[in-house]
């Protein structure tokens, strides 16, 4: 039954990316070998294991029934492997081991516990997939933000063009005034009015674009903050998944999507600050907002990519890797120098108390 075996099907995919030690601890060869889980996957997932507990001795009989059924099924599967002698003998040995080494209630509780651990691992995998989908979604969000920045730049260029046209028409108007003072003409009023209309049109359009650009700048800073908040959430989620990977949870250590994201945030921030400098009027709220976002981004982009062992013996060597996500994007051509200092537990607690 494909629905019933869904859990094992997901687990077989995850086993390919899990380390051997984690797999061995999940499926101990002496008590719950992985072959038992594989060959009896459908039957195992059809049974109700949730009700078993070591404290409830009344469940000894149904537990014995399930143990007997599992041994019988393993023998049946073994006998069906007529063309593979090695596999047949191995499965027969597994069935004997189950018969001789398992107490029924302990067996049932163990199966329940393994299935529960599998569900947790699968759930973590789904969380990782959701996080990756969110990263992809936020990449689209960055593209929209980049388009806004491009539009701000386009407005600036249009305003510059209008400025030149305005100045030219103003000079034209002044020249016409001088000419008509020396040589009065019946066309004076009509031509002067036409030029004045052009001047007013350019002035109105320039004012409109200026207001639109300021609105777009503020909107872009708000948009940038939301995108950066999403980035920080994704980065914290990555750190938490890395922390849990120590005890066997599936974990993708690929930092490249987050690095690309952080670099794009920095580029957008730099572009907005550059555009702000070209506005030629004080917009302190936007300037302070961009400075605050830049400070947080720079401070948050330092990541311990490879954590040291959880338990470090005295006088032993260990390795750890740090990564600065902004890299050369922050200071092109100049490698970022990082200094680290090992502190003891007392120092760490003192720092934690000071920060708290």
Automatic annotation (TrEMBL):
Keywords: Coiled coil, Cytoplasm, DNA-binding, Nucleus, Phosphoprotein, SH2 domain, Transcription, Transcription regulation. It is found in: Cytoplasm; Nucleus. Residues 6-128 form the STAT transcription factor protein interaction domain. Pfam families: STAT_alpha (PF01017), STAT_bind (PF02864), STAT_int (PF02865). The keyword Nuclease does not apply. It comes from the Eukaryota. Residues 128-172 form a coiled coil. InterPro entries: p53-like_TF_DNA-bd_sf, STAT, STAT_N_sf, STAT_TF_alpha, STAT_TF_CC, STAT_TF_DNA-bd, STAT_TF_DNA-bd_N, STAT_TF_prot_interaction. This is STAT transcription factor protein interaction domain-containing protein. It comes from Ilyodon furcidens.
């Amino acid at each position: 039954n494909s629905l019933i075996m869904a859990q094992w099907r997901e687990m077989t995919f995850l086993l390919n990316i899990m380390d051997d030690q984690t797999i061995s601890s999940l499926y101990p060869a002496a008590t719950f070998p992985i072959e038992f889980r594989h060959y009896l996957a459908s039957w195992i997932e059809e049974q109700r294991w949730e009700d078993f507990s070591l404290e409830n001795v009344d469940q000894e009989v149904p537990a014995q029934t399930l143990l007997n059924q599992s041994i019988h099924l393993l023998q049946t599967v073994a006998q069906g492997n007529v063309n593979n002698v090695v596999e047949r003998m191995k499965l027969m040995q597994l069935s004997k081991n189950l018969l001789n080494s398992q107490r029924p209630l302990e067996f049932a509780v163990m199966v329940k516990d393994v299935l529960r651990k599998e569900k947790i691992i699968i759930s973590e995998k789904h969380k990782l997939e959701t996080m990756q989908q969110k990263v992809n979604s936020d990449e689209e969000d960055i593209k929209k933000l980049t388009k806004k920045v491009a539009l701000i730049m386009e407005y600036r260029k249009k305003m510059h063009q209008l400025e030149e046209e305005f100045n030219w028409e103003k000079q034209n108007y002044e020249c016409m005034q001088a000419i008509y003072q020396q040589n009065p003409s019946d066309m004076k009023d009509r031509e002067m009015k036409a030029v004045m209309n052009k001047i007013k049109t350019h002035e109105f359009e320039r004012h409109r674009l200026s207001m639109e650009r300021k609105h777009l700048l503020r909107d872009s800073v708000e948009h940038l903050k939301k995108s950066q908040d999403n980035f920080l959430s994704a980065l914290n989620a990555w750190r938490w998944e890395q922390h849990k990977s120590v005890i066997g949870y599936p974990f993708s250590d690929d930092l490249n999507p987050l690095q690309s994201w952080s670099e794009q945030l920095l580029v957008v921030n730099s572009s907005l600050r550059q555009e702000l400098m070209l506005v030629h009027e004080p917009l302190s709220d936007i300037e302070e907002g961009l400075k605050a976002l830049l400070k947080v981004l720079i401070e948050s982009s330092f990541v311990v990519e490879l954590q040291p062992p959880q338990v470090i013996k005295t006088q032993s060597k260990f390795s750890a890797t740090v990564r600065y996500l902004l890299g050369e994007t922050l200071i092109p051509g100049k490698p970022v120098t990082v200094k680290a200092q090992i502190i003891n537990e007392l120092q760490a607690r003192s720092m934690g108390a000071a920060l708290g």
